[in-house]
Amino acid sequence: MTSHDDQAGRSDETELAPVTPLFGRRGAGSADRSAGPRGAAQAAVPRTQTHVDASSAGDAVAETAARLEAISSHWSAADTGADTEGKAVRASSAPTASGRDTRGIAPVDDVDDDEDEPEDLESQRRRAENVSLHALSRRGVSSSEMTKLLLSRDLDEQVVVDEVERLEGVGLLNDRELADDLVRAKQERKGLGRGAVTSELRQRGLDASVVEEALAEIDDDDEQARCDEWALKRAGSLRGLDHETAQRRLHGYLMRRGYRSETIRRSIDKALPRGGGPRGGGVRFE
User: Fold this and answer.
1) Backbone angles phi, psi at 3, to 5 degrees
2) CATH code linked to domain 120-173
């Protein structure tokens, strides 16, 4: 026989509202086990509502998964396009098979066709004038040197001839004055003899007649005095050598400075006297 309290407890349990499982049937089963007698009452509730809720949750999960897959596909396509473009840029900027770097080189079709047009004579004349004035601002130039310089700049031969004649006409090219200046510079400042001066004038492309005229101005007494001076300076470094060795070395030194043999002989006799006191400060040999 059932008591009034037991009947009231069963009535309360029967009238409880159904609980919707949040995580599917698995979660509901766990809730039933942890709820005891009350969970057993809930298990008796029809499953129609549970299936509807699980289906709704599944649809939401599927929709979210679909969106994530679409986003992933979008960025994968973007990365693939960027990588392809980067490879194309690197391939276009890479050196060619011959080893030449073609970066920054314009295509052949982009080159201006005007660059292939030949330079007209008027433009060449202006360029020849600029080249010649720049050369003359640095040092004296002979007519021969100027001609070689202008020809090396791919100028027309007639343009070169006209420019040299123009410079000679205004006095900017004067071989005779250049020869005189070279003679004074080589003798007075460098102490060179006639032979060295002659070689220098010929190397500058001066005409033979101009060279002879310039050398005719050299005074023999002045050259002998310069040779004596250099001989005395050099003799000081020959102390301790025997007389023949000192003469041989001094003779070679003066020859390299361009003095003639008879001029050198007289200078050696003064700088390296044999016996007696040294004349003019030369080295004494016993």
Assistant:
1) -80, 165
2) 1.10.10
